[in-house]
Amino acid sequence: MKLSIGFKIAFVIMAVLLIEAVIALVLIRDTTQESLKSIINEEFSQTIELVENEFSFLEQSNIYMANSIIMDSKSLKTIKIDDAVEQTNVDNIILLDSNGEIIRQAGLFQINGQNLQTYHIVHQVMHTKKASSAIERVDDIFVFYTAVPIMDDGVLLGELLVGLQLSNRVLHEMSKGSTIHLAIVGDRAIGASSLDLANKKSFVLLPVDYIEYLMLLEGKIDLLETKIEEKEYFVKARKLRYVDKDTTNASLMLLYDAKHYNQQLATINTIQYSLILVMLISIFITVLFISKHLKRAFAKLIRAFKNVAEGNYGELVQIDTHDELESLAYYFNQMSISIKKKDDEIQKHIFDLEKKIQHISQLKESEKILYEKATVDSLTQLYNREKFKDLFDYMIKKSYREETSVVLAILDIDFFKRVNDTFGHLVGDSVLKEIAQILRTTLRETDLIARWGGEEFIVAISVRKREEAALVLQKLIDIVAAHKFETVGEVTCSCGYTFYNENEDNDTLFQRADEALYQAKINGRNRLEVKI
Question: What is the pTM of this model?
Fold first, then answer.
Protein backbone atom coordinates (compact mmCIF):
# COMPACT_ATOMS: atom_id res chain seq x y z
CA MET A 1 0.00 0.00 0.00
CA LYS A 2 1.39 3.32 -1.12
CA LEU A 3 1.22 6.22 1.30
CA SER A 4 0.78 9.76 0.12
CA ILE A 5 3.57 12.21 0.58
CA GLY A 6 1.30 14.24 2.82
CA PHE A 7 0.69 11.25 5.07
CA LYS A 8 4.40 10.45 5.18
CA ILE A 9 5.26 14.02 6.10
CA ALA A 10 2.53 13.99 8.70
CA PHE A 11 3.74 10.65 10.09
CA VAL A 12 7.38 11.81 10.32
CA ILE A 13 6.41 15.14 11.87
CA MET A 14 4.06 13.32 14.24
CA ALA A 15 6.80 10.92 15.35
CA VAL A 16 9.31 13.73 15.83
CA LEU A 17 6.79 15.83 17.72
CA LEU A 18 5.79 12.87 19.88
CA ILE A 19 9.40 12.30 20.92
CA GLU A 20 9.88 16.01 21.48
CA ALA A 21 6.64 16.13 23.48
CA VAL A 22 7.82 13.37 25.84
CA ILE A 23 11.18 15.10 26.32
CA ALA A 24 9.45 18.46 26.77
CA LEU A 25 7.09 17.10 29.42
CA VAL A 26 10.07 15.86 31.42
CA LEU A 27 11.97 19.12 31.03
CA ILE A 28 9.14 21.56 31.65
CA ARG A 29 7.83 19.86 34.78
CA ASP A 30 10.39 21.61 36.97
CA THR A 31 10.09 24.76 34.88
CA THR A 32 6.33 24.75 35.44
CA GLN A 33 6.80 24.51 39.19
CA GLU A 34 9.31 27.35 39.13
CA SER A 35 6.97 29.40 36.95
CA LEU A 36 4.13 28.83 39.38
CA LYS A 37 6.33 29.91 42.24
CA SER A 38 7.20 33.00 40.23
CA ILE A 39 3.47 33.65 39.85
CA ILE A 40 3.06 33.17 43.59
CA ASN A 41 5.92 35.63 44.16
CA GLU A 42 4.16 38.08 41.87
CA GLU A 43 0.98 37.67 43.91
CA PHE A 44 3.03 38.22 47.05
CA SER A 45 4.48 41.42 45.54
CA GLN A 46 1.03 42.66 44.55
CA THR A 47 -0.31 41.89 48.03
CA ILE A 48 2.62 43.73 49.67
CA GLU A 49 1.95 46.71 47.43
CA LEU A 50 -1.74 46.51 48.34
CA VAL A 51 -0.88 46.45 52.06
CA GLU A 52 1.42 49.47 51.66
CA ASN A 53 -1.38 51.28 49.82
CA GLU A 54 -3.79 50.36 52.62
CA PHE A 55 -1.39 51.87 55.16
CA SER A 56 -1.10 55.00 52.98
CA PHE A 57 -4.90 55.23 52.93
CA LEU A 58 -5.03 54.74 56.72
CA GLU A 59 -2.44 57.52 57.10
CA GLN A 60 -4.52 59.95 55.02
CA SER A 61 -7.67 58.93 56.90
CA ASN A 62 -5.94 59.50 60.28
CA ILE A 63 -4.61 62.89 59.12
CA TYR A 64 -8.07 63.97 58.01
CA MET A 65 -9.62 62.83 61.29
CA ALA A 66 -6.92 64.55 63.37
CA ASN A 67 -7.28 67.81 61.46
CA SER A 68 -11.06 67.64 61.95
CA ILE A 69 -10.57 67.33 65.72
CA ILE A 70 -7.97 70.12 65.81
CA MET A 71 -10.01 72.53 63.67
CA ASP A 72 -12.94 72.37 66.08
CA SER A 73 -10.74 73.48 69.01
CA LYS A 74 -9.08 76.78 69.83
CA SER A 75 -6.36 75.46 72.15
CA LEU A 76 -4.89 72.24 73.49
CA LYS A 77 -7.23 72.47 76.47
CA THR A 78 -10.32 72.50 74.29
CA ILE A 79 -9.35 69.58 72.04
CA LYS A 80 -11.88 66.82 72.72
CA ILE A 81 -10.63 63.33 72.00
CA ASP A 82 -13.13 61.20 73.95
CA ASP A 83 -16.01 62.04 71.60
CA ALA A 84 -13.78 61.47 68.57
CA VAL A 85 -12.89 57.93 69.72
CA GLU A 86 -16.55 57.09 70.29
CA GLN A 87 -17.69 58.46 66.92
CA THR A 88 -14.96 56.93 64.71
CA ASN A 89 -13.31 53.58 64.00
CA VAL A 90 -9.96 54.48 65.59
CA ASP A 91 -8.81 52.67 68.71
CA ASN A 92 -6.62 55.26 70.44
CA ILE A 93 -6.08 59.04 70.36
CA ILE A 94 -3.25 60.73 72.30
CA LEU A 95 -2.80 64.48 72.81
CA LEU A 96 0.82 65.58 73.36
CA ASP A 97 2.35 68.94 74.14
CA SER A 98 5.26 70.38 72.15
CA ASN A 99 7.77 68.36 74.23
CA GLY A 100 6.09 65.01 73.58
CA GLU A 101 4.50 64.88 77.04
CA ILE A 102 1.13 63.13 77.19
CA ILE A 103 -1.64 65.57 78.08
CA ARG A 104 -4.40 62.98 77.84
CA GLN A 105 -5.34 59.91 75.88
CA ALA A 106 -8.53 58.01 75.10
CA GLY A 107 -9.43 54.70 73.49
CA LEU A 108 -9.44 50.94 73.94
CA PHE A 109 -5.97 50.92 75.51
CA GLN A 110 -3.57 53.29 77.25
CA ILE A 111 0.15 53.90 76.72
CA ASN A 112 2.22 53.77 79.89
CA GLY A 113 4.63 56.61 80.49
CA GLN A 114 4.41 60.36 80.14
CA ASN A 115 6.78 61.23 77.27
CA LEU A 116 6.66 59.75 73.74
CA GLN A 117 9.78 61.36 72.27
CA THR A 118 11.14 57.83 71.86
CA TYR A 119 8.52 57.35 69.14
CA HIS A 120 10.17 58.20 65.84
CA ILE A 121 7.03 59.85 64.46
CA VAL A 122 6.74 62.14 67.50
CA HIS A 123 10.38 63.18 67.17
CA GLN A 124 10.02 63.66 63.40
CA VAL A 125 6.93 65.87 63.73
CA MET A 126 8.81 68.04 66.24
CA HIS A 127 11.51 68.73 63.65
CA THR A 128 9.60 68.73 60.34
CA LYS A 129 6.19 69.97 61.61
CA LYS A 130 4.62 67.56 59.15
CA ALA A 131 2.42 64.53 59.78
CA SER A 132 4.19 61.18 60.11
CA SER A 133 3.02 57.56 60.52
CA ALA A 134 4.55 54.39 61.91
CA ILE A 135 3.66 51.02 63.40
CA GLU A 136 4.37 51.02 67.14
CA ARG A 137 4.26 48.17 69.62
CA VAL A 138 2.06 48.78 72.66
CA ASP A 139 2.48 45.90 75.12
CA ASP A 140 1.50 42.79 73.07
CA ILE A 141 -0.30 44.55 70.22
CA PHE A 142 0.75 46.57 67.19
CA VAL A 143 -0.82 49.95 66.47
CA PHE A 144 -0.64 52.05 63.31
CA TYR A 145 -0.17 55.62 64.58
CA THR A 146 -0.26 58.88 62.67
CA ALA A 147 1.17 61.94 64.43
CA VAL A 148 -0.26 65.27 63.25
CA PRO A 149 1.24 68.64 64.33
CA ILE A 150 -0.94 71.20 66.11
CA MET A 151 0.23 74.58 64.85
CA ASP A 152 -0.52 78.20 65.69
CA ASP A 153 1.08 80.87 63.47
CA GLY A 154 3.96 78.55 62.58
CA VAL A 155 4.61 77.50 66.20
CA LEU A 156 4.25 73.84 67.22
CA LEU A 157 1.78 73.69 70.15
CA GLY A 158 1.65 69.92 70.34
CA GLU A 159 0.77 66.76 68.47
CA LEU A 160 -2.29 64.56 68.05
CA LEU A 161 -1.66 60.83 67.64
CA VAL A 162 -4.43 58.80 66.00
CA GLY A 163 -4.00 55.03 66.28
CA LEU A 164 -5.63 51.92 64.81
CA GLN A 165 -4.82 48.52 66.28
CA LEU A 166 -3.57 46.06 63.67
CA SER A 167 -5.95 43.33 64.83
CA ASN A 168 -7.11 40.10 63.20
CA ARG A 169 -10.14 41.99 61.89
CA VAL A 170 -8.05 44.73 60.24
CA LEU A 171 -5.72 42.21 58.56
CA HIS A 172 -8.72 40.18 57.42
CA GLU A 173 -10.15 43.30 55.75
CA MET A 174 -6.80 44.02 54.08
CA SER A 175 -6.58 40.48 52.63
CA LYS A 176 -10.24 40.27 51.58
CA GLY A 177 -10.57 38.97 48.02
CA SER A 178 -6.99 37.63 47.99
CA THR A 179 -5.68 34.07 48.25
CA ILE A 180 -2.85 35.35 50.46
CA HIS A 181 -3.24 35.71 54.22
CA LEU A 182 -1.42 38.32 56.30
CA ALA A 183 0.22 38.25 59.72
CA ILE A 184 2.10 40.83 61.79
CA VAL A 185 5.21 39.27 63.38
CA GLY A 186 7.12 40.64 66.33
CA ASP A 187 10.19 38.66 67.39
CA ARG A 188 9.02 35.04 67.59
CA ALA A 189 5.32 35.78 68.15
CA ILE A 190 2.34 36.55 65.93
CA GLY A 191 0.69 39.86 66.83
CA ALA A 192 -2.33 39.43 64.55
CA SER A 193 -3.33 37.48 61.44
CA SER A 194 -6.11 37.15 58.86
CA LEU A 195 -6.28 33.35 59.11
CA ASP A 196 -9.59 31.84 60.25
CA LEU A 197 -8.38 29.05 62.50
CA ALA A 198 -10.37 26.56 64.55
CA ASN A 199 -7.84 26.88 67.38
CA LYS A 200 -6.92 30.56 67.77
CA LYS A 201 -4.03 29.67 70.12
CA SER A 202 -2.38 27.47 67.46
CA PHE A 203 -1.09 30.55 65.65
CA VAL A 204 0.51 32.51 68.47
CA LEU A 205 4.11 31.48 67.90
CA LEU A 206 6.04 31.81 64.63
CA PRO A 207 5.17 28.75 62.46
CA VAL A 208 8.68 28.58 60.91
CA ASP A 209 12.21 28.44 62.25
CA TYR A 210 13.16 31.90 63.51
CA ILE A 211 16.62 31.89 61.87
CA GLU A 212 15.09 30.86 58.54
CA TYR A 213 12.45 33.55 58.96
CA LEU A 214 15.18 36.19 59.44
CA MET A 215 16.90 34.93 56.27
CA LEU A 216 13.54 35.09 54.48
CA LEU A 217 13.09 38.64 55.74
CA GLU A 218 16.55 39.62 54.44
CA GLY A 219 15.84 38.07 51.01
CA LYS A 220 18.44 35.32 51.43
CA ILE A 221 15.65 32.73 51.06
CA ASP A 222 12.90 33.09 48.46
CA LEU A 223 10.07 31.04 50.01
CA LEU A 224 9.48 28.80 53.01
CA GLU A 225 6.94 26.05 53.44
CA THR A 226 5.07 25.38 56.70
CA LYS A 227 1.98 23.60 58.02
CA ILE A 228 -0.75 25.19 60.16
CA GLU A 229 -3.66 23.03 61.36
CA GLU A 230 -2.86 20.34 58.76
CA LYS A 231 -2.86 22.90 55.91
CA GLU A 232 0.31 23.65 53.99
CA TYR A 233 1.35 27.20 53.18
CA PHE A 234 4.08 29.00 51.27
CA VAL A 235 5.54 31.75 53.46
CA LYS A 236 7.16 35.04 52.51
CA ALA A 237 8.17 37.97 54.73
CA ARG A 238 8.74 41.64 54.15
CA LYS A 239 9.85 44.58 56.25
CA LEU A 240 7.17 47.25 56.38
CA ARG A 241 7.95 50.82 55.35
CA TYR A 242 5.91 52.26 58.22
CA VAL A 243 7.55 50.33 61.08
CA ASP A 244 9.24 52.43 63.80
CA LYS A 245 12.60 50.65 63.84
CA ASP A 246 13.59 52.41 67.10
CA THR A 247 10.82 50.76 69.15
CA THR A 248 9.77 47.58 67.35
CA ASN A 249 11.01 45.02 64.83
CA ALA A 250 7.57 44.18 63.45
CA SER A 251 7.39 42.64 59.98
CA LEU A 252 4.73 41.39 57.59
CA MET A 253 4.39 37.65 56.99
CA LEU A 254 2.41 36.47 53.97
CA LEU A 255 0.96 32.95 53.68
CA TYR A 256 -0.19 31.38 50.41
CA ASP A 257 -2.38 28.28 50.64
CA ALA A 258 -0.41 25.46 48.97
CA LYS A 259 -3.72 23.89 47.97
CA HIS A 260 -4.15 26.62 45.34
CA TYR A 261 -0.62 25.91 44.09
CA ASN A 262 -1.27 22.19 43.73
CA GLN A 263 -4.56 22.85 41.95
CA GLN A 264 -2.89 25.22 39.50
CA LEU A 265 -0.04 22.75 38.93
CA ALA A 266 -2.51 19.95 38.20
CA THR A 267 -4.51 22.23 35.90
CA ILE A 268 -1.40 23.31 33.99
CA ASN A 269 -0.21 19.70 33.63
CA THR A 270 -3.64 18.68 32.33
CA ILE A 271 -3.66 21.58 29.90
CA GLN A 272 -0.15 20.71 28.72
CA TYR A 273 -1.01 17.05 28.12
CA SER A 274 -4.23 17.99 26.37
CA LEU A 275 -2.58 20.56 24.16
CA ILE A 276 0.16 18.17 23.09
CA LEU A 277 -2.38 15.48 22.26
CA VAL A 278 -4.53 17.88 20.25
CA MET A 279 -1.48 19.26 18.55
CA LEU A 280 -0.28 15.82 17.46
CA ILE A 281 -3.67 14.80 16.11
CA SER A 282 -4.17 18.11 14.33
CA ILE A 283 -0.73 17.98 12.71
CA PHE A 284 -1.31 14.38 11.58
CA ILE A 285 -4.57 15.33 9.84
CA THR A 286 -3.84 18.79 8.46
CA VAL A 287 -0.09 19.30 8.18
CA LEU A 288 -0.17 19.34 4.34
CA PHE A 289 -2.84 21.99 4.07
CA ILE A 290 -2.71 24.11 7.23
CA SER A 291 0.13 26.52 6.51
CA LYS A 292 -1.64 28.83 4.10
CA HIS A 293 -4.92 28.44 5.96
CA LEU A 294 -3.36 29.44 9.27
CA LYS A 295 -1.43 32.32 7.81
CA ARG A 296 -4.56 34.12 6.61
CA ALA A 297 -6.60 33.33 9.71
CA PHE A 298 -3.93 34.26 12.22
CA ALA A 299 -3.18 37.49 10.36
CA LYS A 300 -6.79 38.53 10.97
CA LEU A 301 -6.64 37.46 14.61
CA ILE A 302 -3.32 39.19 15.27
CA ARG A 303 -4.65 42.40 13.80
CA ALA A 304 -7.80 42.08 15.93
CA PHE A 305 -5.83 41.37 19.13
CA LYS A 306 -3.58 44.33 18.37
CA ASN A 307 -6.64 46.56 18.11
CA VAL A 308 -7.89 45.28 21.47
CA ALA A 309 -4.47 45.90 23.02
CA GLU A 310 -4.64 49.47 21.73
CA GLY A 311 -8.12 49.96 23.20
CA ASN A 312 -10.16 49.60 19.98
CA TYR A 313 -12.83 47.10 20.94
CA GLY A 314 -15.36 47.50 18.12
CA GLU A 315 -13.71 45.69 15.19
CA LEU A 316 -14.91 42.11 14.56
CA VAL A 317 -13.01 39.20 12.98
CA GLN A 318 -14.64 37.31 10.07
CA ILE A 319 -13.26 33.79 9.51
CA ASP A 320 -15.36 31.19 7.63
CA THR A 321 -13.39 27.97 8.01
CA HIS A 322 -15.99 25.88 9.90
CA ASP A 323 -13.36 24.79 12.41
CA GLU A 324 -11.71 25.85 15.66
CA LEU A 325 -10.35 29.01 14.10
CA GLU A 326 -13.88 30.15 13.29
CA SER A 327 -14.92 29.37 16.87
CA LEU A 328 -11.89 31.25 18.13
CA ALA A 329 -12.88 34.23 15.99
CA TYR A 330 -16.47 34.00 17.24
CA TYR A 331 -15.50 33.95 20.91
CA PHE A 332 -12.95 36.68 20.29
CA ASN A 333 -15.73 38.80 18.82
CA GLN A 334 -17.91 38.04 21.84
CA MET A 335 -15.01 38.90 24.12
CA SER A 336 -14.38 42.18 22.25
CA ILE A 337 -18.05 43.15 22.46
CA SER A 338 -18.17 42.16 26.15
CA ILE A 339 -15.01 44.14 26.96
CA LYS A 340 -16.40 47.21 25.21
CA LYS A 341 -19.67 46.85 27.07
CA LYS A 342 -17.88 46.41 30.40
CA ASP A 343 -15.61 49.36 29.67
CA ASP A 344 -18.63 51.56 28.95
CA GLU A 345 -20.27 50.34 32.17
CA ILE A 346 -17.12 51.03 34.17
CA GLN A 347 -16.85 54.55 32.81
CA LYS A 348 -20.50 55.19 33.61
CA HIS A 349 -20.05 53.66 37.07
CA ILE A 350 -17.03 55.90 37.74
CA PHE A 351 -19.04 58.92 36.67
CA ASP A 352 -21.94 57.92 38.93
CA LEU A 353 -19.59 57.28 41.85
CA GLU A 354 -18.02 60.71 41.48
CA LYS A 355 -21.48 62.28 41.54
CA LYS A 356 -22.44 60.26 44.62
CA ILE A 357 -19.23 61.18 46.43
CA GLN A 358 -19.86 64.84 45.70
CA HIS A 359 -23.43 64.50 46.97
CA ILE A 360 -22.30 62.73 50.15
CA SER A 361 -19.73 65.47 50.82
CA GLN A 362 -22.43 68.10 50.48
CA LEU A 363 -24.73 66.16 52.82
CA LYS A 364 -21.99 65.81 55.45
CA GLU A 365 -21.25 69.52 55.32
CA SER A 366 -24.96 70.31 55.71
CA GLU A 367 -25.22 67.81 58.57
CA LYS A 368 -22.28 69.48 60.35
CA ILE A 369 -23.89 72.93 60.03
CA LEU A 370 -27.27 71.65 61.27
CA TYR A 371 -25.63 69.89 64.23
CA GLU A 372 -23.85 73.08 65.30
CA LYS A 373 -27.06 75.10 65.02
CA ALA A 374 -28.93 72.50 67.09
CA THR A 375 -26.38 72.27 69.91
CA VAL A 376 -24.46 75.57 70.15
CA ASP A 377 -25.63 79.04 71.12
CA SER A 378 -24.81 81.25 68.12
CA LEU A 379 -23.84 84.32 70.19
CA THR A 380 -21.57 82.87 72.89
CA GLN A 381 -20.56 79.62 71.12
CA LEU A 382 -21.42 77.78 74.33
CA TYR A 383 -23.76 74.79 74.46
CA ASN A 384 -27.45 75.63 74.35
CA ARG A 385 -30.03 74.50 76.89
CA GLU A 386 -30.97 71.19 75.19
CA LYS A 387 -27.38 70.09 74.60
CA PHE A 388 -26.52 70.91 78.22
CA LYS A 389 -29.34 68.67 79.47
CA ASP A 390 -28.08 65.76 77.35
CA LEU A 391 -24.48 66.14 78.56
CA PHE A 392 -25.62 66.71 82.16
CA ASP A 393 -27.34 63.31 82.21
CA TYR A 394 -24.09 61.70 81.08
CA MET A 395 -22.18 63.64 83.77
CA ILE A 396 -24.54 62.26 86.45
CA LYS A 397 -23.89 58.68 85.29
CA LYS A 398 -20.15 59.33 85.22
CA SER A 399 -20.23 60.66 88.80
CA TYR A 400 -21.53 57.29 90.04
CA ARG A 401 -18.49 55.54 88.55
CA GLU A 402 -15.99 58.11 89.81
CA GLU A 403 -17.70 58.63 93.20
CA THR A 404 -17.81 62.42 92.84
CA SER A 405 -20.44 65.04 93.65
CA VAL A 406 -22.10 66.99 90.85
CA VAL A 407 -22.64 70.72 91.42
CA LEU A 408 -25.24 72.66 89.41
CA ALA A 409 -24.84 76.46 89.39
CA ILE A 410 -26.79 79.23 87.65
CA LEU A 411 -25.08 82.60 87.06
CA ASP A 412 -27.02 85.76 86.26
CA ILE A 413 -25.49 89.08 85.16
CA ASP A 414 -26.48 91.81 87.62
CA PHE A 415 -28.45 94.75 86.19
CA PHE A 416 -27.99 93.45 82.63
CA LYS A 417 -31.10 95.29 81.46
CA ARG A 418 -29.44 98.53 82.54
CA VAL A 419 -26.45 97.66 80.30
CA ASN A 420 -28.73 97.13 77.29
CA ASP A 421 -30.75 100.27 78.00
CA THR A 422 -27.66 102.44 78.54
CA PHE A 423 -25.22 101.14 75.96
CA GLY A 424 -27.41 99.25 73.50
CA HIS A 425 -27.89 95.58 72.68
CA LEU A 426 -24.64 95.26 70.72
CA VAL A 427 -22.65 96.19 73.82
CA GLY A 428 -24.85 93.81 75.83
CA ASP A 429 -24.01 91.02 73.38
CA SER A 430 -20.31 91.86 73.78
CA VAL A 431 -20.63 91.51 77.58
CA LEU A 432 -22.27 88.08 77.14
CA LYS A 433 -19.42 86.95 74.88
CA GLU A 434 -16.73 88.14 77.30
CA ILE A 435 -18.35 86.39 80.26
CA ALA A 436 -18.68 83.21 78.16
CA GLN A 437 -14.94 83.41 77.45
CA ILE A 438 -14.20 83.91 81.17
CA LEU A 439 -16.22 80.78 81.96
CA ARG A 440 -14.35 78.77 79.34
CA THR A 441 -10.89 79.82 80.49
CA THR A 442 -11.59 79.63 84.24
CA LEU A 443 -13.40 76.29 84.48
CA ARG A 444 -11.95 72.91 83.62
CA GLU A 445 -12.41 71.20 80.29
CA THR A 446 -14.44 68.45 81.98
CA ASP A 447 -16.93 70.99 83.38
CA LEU A 448 -20.13 71.75 81.48
CA ILE A 449 -20.97 75.35 80.49
CA ALA A 450 -24.05 76.57 78.60
CA ARG A 451 -26.08 79.68 77.99
CA TRP A 452 -29.32 79.05 79.87
CA GLY A 453 -31.19 81.99 78.36
CA GLY A 454 -31.00 85.78 78.27
CA GLU A 455 -28.27 86.85 80.67
CA GLU A 456 -28.19 83.51 82.53
CA PHE A 457 -25.46 80.89 82.28
CA ILE A 458 -25.53 77.41 83.76
CA VAL A 459 -22.49 75.45 84.94
CA ALA A 460 -22.07 71.83 86.11
CA ILE A 461 -18.86 70.72 87.81
CA SER A 462 -17.77 67.56 89.62
CA VAL A 463 -15.92 67.72 92.96
CA ARG A 464 -14.44 65.21 95.39
CA LYS A 465 -15.31 67.33 98.42
CA ARG A 466 -18.38 69.55 98.56
CA GLU A 467 -16.49 72.50 100.01
CA GLU A 468 -14.51 72.70 96.75
CA ALA A 469 -17.64 73.93 94.95
CA ALA A 470 -17.85 77.21 96.85
CA LEU A 471 -14.15 77.94 96.20
CA VAL A 472 -14.45 77.36 92.45
CA LEU A 473 -17.68 79.36 92.02
CA GLN A 474 -16.58 82.23 94.27
CA LYS A 475 -13.37 82.49 92.27
CA LEU A 476 -15.48 82.69 89.12
CA ILE A 477 -17.60 85.55 90.54
CA ASP A 478 -14.47 87.42 91.66
CA ILE A 479 -12.85 87.09 88.20
CA VAL A 480 -15.96 88.52 86.53
CA ALA A 481 -16.09 91.39 89.02
CA ALA A 482 -12.41 92.20 88.48
CA HIS A 483 -12.64 92.05 84.69
CA LYS A 484 -12.69 95.35 82.80
CA PHE A 485 -15.36 95.07 80.13
CA GLU A 486 -15.01 97.15 76.99
CA THR A 487 -17.32 100.22 77.05
CA VAL A 488 -19.22 99.04 80.18
CA GLY A 489 -16.30 98.81 82.56
CA GLU A 490 -17.35 96.74 85.57
CA VAL A 491 -19.99 94.00 85.53
CA THR A 492 -20.90 91.62 88.35
CA CYS A 493 -22.68 88.28 88.55
CA SER A 494 -24.84 86.56 91.13
CA CYS A 495 -24.63 82.79 91.47
CA GLY A 496 -26.80 80.17 93.10
CA TYR A 497 -25.78 76.53 93.29
CA THR A 498 -26.84 73.18 94.69
CA PHE A 499 -25.73 69.55 94.75
CA TYR A 500 -27.27 66.64 92.87
CA ASN A 501 -28.91 64.09 95.18
CA GLU A 502 -29.10 60.44 94.16
CA ASN A 503 -32.16 59.51 92.04
CA GLU A 504 -33.28 63.16 91.96
CA ASP A 505 -35.07 64.38 88.82
CA ASN A 506 -33.46 67.26 86.91
CA ASP A 507 -36.41 69.64 87.21
CA THR A 508 -36.20 69.56 91.02
CA LEU A 509 -32.43 70.08 90.88
CA PHE A 510 -32.66 73.02 88.46
CA GLN A 511 -35.45 74.58 90.54
CA ARG A 512 -33.30 74.43 93.68
CA ALA A 513 -30.35 76.09 91.91
CA ASP A 514 -32.69 78.80 90.62
CA GLU A 515 -33.97 79.43 94.16
CA ALA A 516 -30.37 79.77 95.36
CA LEU A 517 -29.77 82.34 92.60
CA TYR A 518 -32.86 84.24 93.66
CA GLN A 519 -31.54 84.30 97.24
CA ALA A 520 -28.21 85.72 95.97
CA LYS A 521 -30.13 88.48 94.17
CA ILE A 522 -32.20 89.55 97.17
CA ASN A 523 -29.13 89.39 99.44
CA GLY A 524 -27.39 92.12 97.50
CA ARG A 525 -26.10 90.57 94.22
CA ASN A 526 -22.44 89.93 93.29
CA ARG A 527 -22.46 87.01 95.70
CA LEU A 528 -22.76 83.24 95.98
CA GLU A 529 -25.61 81.34 97.66
CA VAL A 530 -26.20 77.63 98.06
CA LYS A 531 -29.35 75.62 98.65
CA ILE A 532 -28.94 71.99 99.69
Answer: 0.47
